[in-house]
Specification:
CATH architecture of the largest domain: 2-Layer Sandwich
Distance between the termini: 54 Å
Strand order of the largest sheet: 2-1-5-4-3
Shape: globular
CATH class of the largest domain: Alpha Beta
Order of helices and strands: HHEEHHEHHEEHHHHH
């Protein structure tokens, strides 16, 4: 794999999905088959709010569980990505920090979800925006390699620049918004008059999970309230009220 070829593929990607695929394939060549992009701050120019897992090949049930536990509030990897400039391995982070019991449990549960030998990549964009990429292996035993760490860091910077470019091009164009099945389900229940707590009870999921998907819906519809999102979704045919 030549770095130049990967960068060329990313720069010529037809959309964010293909960009993510090109980046993920490159990272996998170093032994990391799990990738997650988190927007650690709002990205106003892209009309995107802070969101964990805006693009992800992590196990979906792990991401939902992670958010349901509120781990995004005190995850040491996210904290380091917010304040740091340089890439790091999870092992390096663990070696230089004293973790709380809750943070220790987070790493233990991540390992149970088959996320091993992880790396963290801080990313900084225009206007003080911050993001972070986490990569991990579904199998233990990826040897730490400083050259690989910096190669992935450089690829990540290119990926983030291409992510910005593609989203700036599309943010000004009207397009059909895609809701995930879970987002559509939650939106229908919110439209019926249930609160987020009541939706969580109805679907037997956590409040944090409902809140996560609700924030994603608001971001996609570019609205600031559930009421506005429901009106827009109904008018545009995303949901039908009985």
């Amino acid at each position: 794999m030549k770095i130049e070829d990967v960068i060329d593929d990313m720069q010529n990607a037809a959309g964010v999905g293909r960009l993510f695929d090109a980046y993920s394939r490159a990272v996998e060549s170093y032994g990391y088959d799990r990738v997650l992009l988190a927007l650690l701050s709002d990205h106003p120019r892209l009309h995107q709010s802070a969101q964990h897992g805006v693009l992800s090949s992590y196990p979906e049930d792990w991401v939902e569980y992670y958010l349901s536990q509120g781990y995004d509030e005190d995850d040491p990897v996210r904290m380091e990505a917010k304040r740091g400039l340089y890439p790091f391995s999870w092992k390096q982070l663990l070696a230089r920090q004293v973790l709380s019991k809750r943070q220790q449990v987070l790493f233990e549960e991540a390992a149970d979800a088959h996320l091993h030998d992880g790396l963290g990549i801080p990313l900084h964009g225009p206007g003080g925006t911050t993001a972070g990429i986490g990569v991990a292996s579904s199998c233990k035993g990826v040897p730490f390699d400083t050259q690989a760490l910096w190669a992935i860091h450089n690829l990540s910077i290119q990926f983030y620049a291409c992510y910005w470019s593609l989203n700036e091009k599309t943010s000004s164009r009207t397009r059909r918004i895609k809701l995930t099945p879970r987002e559509a389900e939650i939106l229908r229940w919110l439209a019926s008059g249930l609160t987020k707590s009541e939706v969580a009870d109805r679907l037997i999921i956590s409040y944090h999970t409902v809140d996560f998907h609700t924030r994603s819906i608001l971001q996609k519809f570019k609205t600031g309230s559930i009421t506005a999102a429901v009106h827009f979704a109904t008018a545009q045919g995303y949901i039908a009220l009985d």
